[in-house]
User: What shape does this take?
Amino acid sequence: MPEGPSLILVKEALDQFRGKKVLEASGHAGIDMELFAGKKLLGIETFGKHLLLLFPKFTISIHFLLFGWYSIDKKNRVAKAIKLKLEFADHKLYFYTCKVELFEKSFDKQYDLSADIMNDKWSNAKAVKKMNALPKTFICDALMSQDIFAGVGNIIKNEVLYNTKTHPESIIEKIPKAKLLAIAKESRRYSFDFLKWRIDDELTKHWLAYNRKICSRCNIPIIKKETGKTKRSSFFCENCQILY
DNA sequence: TGCCATGTTAAACT
DNA sequence: GAGTTTAACATGGC
Assistant: This one.
């Protein structure tokens, strides 16, 4: 589930808890659960794939990894999967199979918000600058870098490369500057399409490359290949996506 | 049924 | 020590 746009939806779903006091906390997150008792949840933010719970003197960052999710009131997973359970007066909030971290800085100092694909502070220029600082890197790895494109996951990566007609194994220093800028712009633009389609529960039908078999532009098979340092699957058309 | 995956990181290797 | 590979997490869809 959790690429950046999905986190926006989690944030909205949890807005009902803003300003509410935590009565009790528990779970297998490995942090001191006593910290929460009596504390008010001041706000909910996101950074990339992180959900941020703002408390008076600390912030909890929740990363859902591959299988994590949350539920309200209904416990719908095995006990050991419950990493954090926050009990409010009226509701219980569960977070499953996620990485939970605590930090004390304000979240805008903890993270570079201009790197967050969903944040209004997103900067195309900074993304291009960071890519240029990694000349030997594959573009598929750069797009998955959470330091450059926080919130982009494997689906968005593949769709952005398809839409910008760029082969995932292109090397950054060989890619024209205008194309790098186009990739940065498309990563943000597409993420809002992704959000819209997820709200309407029609995300998968809009995929053009990810999990697809045929290129809709060329009518030839889409290649599936593990690419880049992290060997994540790339789906691409060898004909219309240029290898730089 | 078995395999794969929208993710990350620590441990175990070379 | 650096770089690479494996394992672990735990679930749902096909």
